[in-house]
Specification:
Shape: globular
Largest sheet: 3 strands, antiparallel
Strand order of the largest sheet: 1-2-3
Strand content: under 5%
Organism: Croceibacterium selenioxidans
Pathway: Carbohydrate metabolism; tricarboxylic acid cycle; isocitrate from oxaloacetate: step 1/2
Structural class: mainly alpha
Family: Belongs to the citrate synthase family.
Keywords: Acyltransferase, Membrane, Transferase, Transmembrane, Transmembrane helix, Tricarboxylic acid cycle
Distance between the termini: 24 Å
Number of helices: 18
Radius of gyration: 23 Å
Helix content: 40-55%
Order of helices and strands: HEEEHHHHHHHHHHHHHHHHH
Bound molecules: acetyl coenzyme *A
Protein name: Citrate synthase
Number of strands: 3
Length: 401
């Protein structure tokens, strides 16, 4: 029998908290979530208000600096980000090493990790100027990196950033534009894309953000830390859920098949879960899903398109919310439930969905990383464990086993 006191020391408290359901890993002044009430605030501002009135550049400034910028500060910040949108030319060679059918997230893990090999003049984390430059570089280069991953997958030439455009319009042009042909960014699509970026900008200590913080706590450079965050985000229980949710909705196909999938989600012998439903923190409607649902309608109207999958999603939501199982377990649509429908209407393949999430979440990761590095009480992250293996025993020579 293991003596816990002997293993973990006589003093202090030892907690065993798988999945960290009730353990705060840090102090943070960035994002507040009230999961019971369905409230999300960034630096105190409700997500609904930011999505309605702000822009992704403004929210990025807010997350990094703590306050909303005035017009001059916003112009300056946007210009600074614009200065860093280009990617080192040699990185294009790096892309060409991947298979064409590689998942964009696989490419992004590699390319973002490789940034430290190209921008090592901003990797001294003890220098605030280096931290600032690397933060700006990451936010600025992610649209270029994501767009290049897309272009590579469809076999089209890469497009250089056009810095006369906004952050979001520039991304859309690099993704959907073709060299030597004019590309008009639809204002409603630009607005919707920008709003989707705002909705994904940060979400306190979720799995990928905790990964970034844990990687950063060892003193690893910011590019390596963000690459770690991208790897974690990719999982279907986290950022990969937007891709999985749309695939699920397409598989359901028509509203008459919804009930069958609801029954499957409730069956404990079936690993199937309703993707885009449920959340570790929200035990109420995810406020981001509310905005996302509204944005679907706006995009459909602007592009004069529709998608039967939206009707399936609306009916699925209604049936699930009136079902005892989902009611008792407080499972509501999360940010990923509707986002895929919009992204698909905009022309993105499902494999790009999580890449777009990573692009936007980079702001949160970078802000959280900066907050952690600037914290004088910061320590290397080092969770303990509850050891369940054998107690000490003598080595047995192989011939006696
Ligand atoms: N469908 C069916 N049942 C579900 C679902 C779901 N989507 N989500 C949770 N449950 C059930 C679980 O089976 C469990 O039931 P039990 O108490 O009978 O064992 C109970 O609800 C609690 O679920 P947990 O997995 O313990 O909750 P946890 O907080 O660990 O997981 C998670 C949260 C991972 C988001 C989960 O709800 C899930 O897998 N959802 C689907 C994937 C998804 O949409 N992820 C995106 C999250 S948002 C984001 O990352 C951006």
């Amino acid at each position: 029998v293991l003596d816990i006191r002997k293993l973990y020391g006589q003093t202090g408290m030892f907690t065993y908290d798988p999945g960290f359901t009730s353990t705060a890993s840090c102090e943070s002044s960035l994002t507040y979530i009230d999961g019971e009430e369905g409230i999300l605030l960034h630096r105190g501002y409700p997500i609904g208000q930011l999505a309605e009135h702000s822009s992704f550049m403004e929210v990025s400034y807010l997350m990094l600096n703590g306050e909303l910028p005035n017009s001059q500060e916003l112009d300056e910040f946007s210009r600074t980000i614009t200065r860093h949108t280009m990617l080192h030319e040699q990185l294009a060679t790096f892309y060409r090493g991947f298979r064409r059918d590689a998942h964009p997230m696989a490419i992004m893990c590699g390319v973002v990790g490789a940034l430290s090999a190209f921008y090592h003049d901003s990797t001294d984390i003890s220098d605030p100027h280096h931290r600032k430059v690397s933060s700006h570089r990451l936010i600025a280069k992610m649209p270029t990196i994501a767009a290049m991953a897309y272009k590579y997958s469809v076999g089209q030439p890469f497009l250089y950033p056009d810095n006369s455009l906004s952050y979001t319009a520039n991304f859309l042009r690099m993704t959907f534009g073709v060299p030597a042909e004019p590309y008009e960014v639809h204002p409603a699509v630009e607005r919707a894309m920008d709003r989707i970026f705002i909705l994904h900008a940060d979400h306190e200590q979720n799995a990928s953000t905790s990964t970034v913080r844990l990687a950063g706590s060892s003193g690893a450079n910011p590019f390596a830390c963000i690459a770690a965050g991208i790897a974690c985000l990719w999982g279907p229980a986290h950022g990969g859920a937007n891709e999985a949710a749309l695939n699920m909705l397409r598989e359901i196909g028509t509203p008459d098949r919804i009930k069958h999938y609801i029954e499957r989600a409730k069956d404990k012998n079936d690993p199937f879960r309703l993707m885009g439903f449920g959340h570790r923190v929200y035990k109420n409607y995810d406020p981001r899903a509310t905005v996302m649902q509204k944005t679907v309608r706006e995009v459909f109207e602007a592009l004069k398109v529709t998608d039967p999958v939206f009707e399936t999603a609306l009916q699925l939501e209604e049936i699930a919310l009136n079902d005892d199982y989902f009611h008792e377990k407080k499972l509501f649509p999360n940010v990923d439930f509707y986002s895929g429908i919009i992204l698909s209407a905009m022309g993105f393949p499902t494999t790009m969905f999580t890449a777009l999430f990573a692009l936007a979440r980079t702001v949160g990761w970078v802000a959280q990383w900066n907050e952690m590095i600037s914290d004088p009480g910061q320590k290397i992250g080092r969770p303990r464990q509850l050891y369940t293996g054998p107690t000490e025993r003598d080595y047995i020579p192989i011939e006696k086993r």
